[in-house]
Every structure is written in structure tokens, then in C-alpha cells.
Specification:
The protein is of the alpha+beta class. The protein is 21% helix and 30% strand. The two termini are 16 Å apart.
Length: 215
């Protein structure tokens, strides 16, 4: 399995409605993603079937047990988005937490290409800035469309830390910004020294050019 770049859409469990899962996937589609199929044994499931399954699991605050088969878990969804080789979305939930997340993942190799340098006899890594900008645009569009604003949208590479919790951000710990993050303005701390700008829905977009390619 290749290493993945991830976008974590963190949601408040207190804001779960009967349409939470449907609205998220529908917003993704309206923001440019196209439903492709289910995943990991559920490739033939329709999007409505996956929505119904995942919504029930979410309302039950379900968390897969260590000895349970993956077929009991939330079902993953595959989307087409621009020319990325793979775009998958799954729900991550822990029973004891007051948040859950929709995790969008893309292979890290989709953000680079290798250019052979004949004079040196080796390949040079070319970072595809335009690919990351597609993710940034998607994040901002999703934030603007959300009826119940996310607690955060955070990005990271395979070896990055996990998304920062709301509780930790309230204590002043910065969100995971590799290279982007969006948070509501009430979680903002002046000591975070990252470029930022305000967006609609009371959001603040952070960028981190220093660790943009930290993977």
C-alpha cells in the first residue's frame, strides 16, 4: 500500500443529523468529485447504499473492534477528482471522542513526478505545486458549503502527526498544517506564526510553505 496524503474534515458529534453523511458526499460531488465506487469488497455498492450504511453506523457511534472484520466497519468510497490516480474517503470515529472525521486520502506520489537528468545519470523529483492547490481549493469550497461548519480541516503526509484535537487547539496547540488547515476563528491563537487569511463561514485558512513537501 503506498503512502497517502490526507485531508481530515473534523466534525462535532453534537451536530450529527440524519443527513450528515449524505450532505458530506453530496458537497464533495458539487465541489468537483465524481462518485466512482465503493471499496474493499463493496465496489458494487451504490452511493445511496453506502450513505445509508455509514449514517446508521455514525448514529450508533460505531467503532470497529480490534478483532472484528472490516466488513462491519464504515464503508469507504472511491471518487474521481481531476487526474489523481486514487481518491478515497472513509469515516474515522472513536467512541470516547466528541468528534469524528471524514478522511480523504490520495497517494503521495500523485504530488510529484520524476525527471531523468541524463548528465547526472539520475532522476530529479519535481514537486507538483498545482496539485496541492487543487486540494486547497477543495478544502475552501467544502468549508463554505458546510451547513454545520467543521471543527477543522487539516492536512498531512503519511508520516505526519494526526490532526490536532479541538481541545488541544483551545490550549494553544497549532493545527496540522502540512501544508493547509482551516479552523473557525474562535480557535485562532496569535502565537501561531503561519500565513493565514479569512474565508467565509467564520473560517481561517492557514498555509505552511516551509513543510509543504515534508514526507
Amino acid at each position: 500500500m503506498p503512502p497517502y496524503f490526507s485531508v481530515s474534515f473534523v466534525c462535532d458529534k453534537n451536530c450529527i443529523t440524519q443527513n450528515t453523511v449524505q450532505n458530506f458526499y453530496q458537497n464533495l460531488i458539487e465541489c468537483g468529485c465524481t462518485f466512482k465506487s465503493g471499496y474493499w469488497g463493496f465496489e458494487n455498492n451504490t452511493l445511496p447504499q453506502i450513505i445509508e450504511w455509514n449514517q446508521k453506523k455514525l448514529e450508533q457511534n460505531f467503532q470497529l473492534g480490534y478483532t472484528e472484520d472490516h466488513t462491519y466497519d464504515y464503508k469507504q468510497v472511491q471518487f474521481d477528482f481531476h487526474d489523481f490516480s486514487e481518491v478515497r474517503v472513509f469515516i474515522f470515529n472513536m467512541e470516547e471522542k466528541n468528534t469524528f472525521s471524514f478522511e480523504l486520502i490520495i497517494p503521495e506520489d500523485d504530488f510529484i513526478r520524476y525527471e531523468y537528468q541524463e548528465e547526472k545519470g539520475k532522476h530529479k523529483i519535481i514537486y507538483l505545486e498545482e496539485k496541492l492547490l487543487l486540494i486547497k481549493d477543495l478544502m475552501e469550497k467544502m468549508w463554505k458549503k458546510s451547513e454545520n461548519p467543521f471543527w477543522s480541516v487539516q492536512t498531512g503526509w503519511e508520516c505526519s502527526d494526526t490532526a490536532t484535537s479541538v481541545e488541544d487547539m483551545q490550549k494553544g496547540i497549532e493545527p496540522l498544517i502540512q501544508p493547509y488547515a482551516i479552523i473557525p476563528s474562535e480557535l485562532f491563537h496569535n502565537e501561531w506564526h503561519f500565513p493565514f487569511y479569512k474565508i467565509s463561514n467564520n473560517g481561517i485558512m492557514f498555509t505552511d510553505d516551509v513543510t509543504k513537501w515534508k514526507y
